[in-house]
Amino acid sequence: MPPTTESAKQEWEQAYRAFADVTDPALAERLGSQLEAIATELRRRLGGAFTIAELADEYVRADIWARHVLSEQGAREWPRTLALVEGAAFHLYARGAVDYEP
Fewer C-beta neighbours within 10 Å, C or N terminus of the chain? Predict the structure, then answer.
């Protein structure tokens, strides 16, 4: 895989670990809702069959559309949580890639 794809995968994994480490139940619920909103948009954008490289390409553009998705959702703290939920959502979504390898 190209270095940019590999570095994106590392960012996603780090974000997912940080997401999983959240201990405050109220915050975890809000972040989970934000993550689901990002995942829903990923499904809309990439559909069912996609590769890790295609997902990494979408990751480059995600900051633009993810802000819009979360602000439409009404998430108040999204400017502080965007990188976390975005990375975690991409990490989880990558498992559905046709070329996914754990």
Answer: C
Mean pLDDT of all residues in 13-39? 95
Q: Are 35 and 89 in contact (CB under 8 A)?
A: yes
Judge whether 52 and 5 are in contact, CB under 8 Å.
yes
Q: Does residue 3 register a pLDDT over 60?
A: no
Using the 8-state DSSP alphabet, how is residue 77 labeled? S
Burial degree of 80 (CB within 10 A; 0-12, 13-18, 19+): exposed
CA distance 99 to 22: 30
What contacts 30, CB < 8 A, 6 or more positions away? 75, 77, 81
User: Looking at residue 79, what is its pLDDT?
Assistant: 83
pLDDT at site 77: 77
- 16 closest CA partner among 93, 102, 97: 93
Percent with pLDDT over 70 in the chain: 97
